[in-house]
Amino acid sequence: MLSAQDAAKGFDAVGAPARIVVLLALVRAGPDGLLIGELQKRLEIPASTLAHHIRILLNAGLISQERQGRTTTCRPNLDAIEELAAFLMKECCADRAPQPAGQSTGRDGKDDARA
Questions:
Q1: In this predicted model, what pLDDT tens digit does every residue of 31-84 receive, in sequence order?
Q2: What are phi and psi of 34, to 5 degrees?
């Protein structure tokens, strides 16, 4: 179970639009991740800026890196990302008043009944 302190660290790491973009690019690439050069090419950002954002995401545990010879691969830590999302979702609707029997509402408060 993720602590509030660990969750805050993860949310802080994705608190900049550029880091969201980096993380989303890695999530879209899947568990194999991307070479840093490919990530830089896709995002069209300077190497020094990318390195800064990668360091913050690494420190938060949201991504990992693997160096093989002269290449470095960045991979999303999908378990950590899922755990961060679950931290918020576990509280969904916790304080909402109970609904009368037979009445079903979704998270957005609208009726979930299917026609």
A1: 999 999 999 999 999 999 999 999 999 999 999 999 999 999 999 999 999 999
A2: -140, 150
Whether the Cβ atoms of residue 31 and residue 78 lie closer than 8 Å to each other: yes
Hey, is 34 helix, strand or coil? strand
d(Cα 60, Cα 53) in Å, to the nearest integer?
11
Tokens of 22: 């980096």
Beta strands in 27-109 (DSSP E): 34-35, 63-68, 71-76
Q: Phi/psi zone of residue 92: left (φ > 0), alpha (ψ -120 to 50 degrees), beta?
A: beta
Distance CA 49, CA 35 (A): 16
Q: Which residues of 11-24 are buried (b: 16+ CB within 10 A; e: fewer)?
A: eebbeeeebeebbe
φ and ψ at residue 8, rounded to 5 degrees: -60, -40
Q: Which residue has the tokens 């070479």?
A: 35
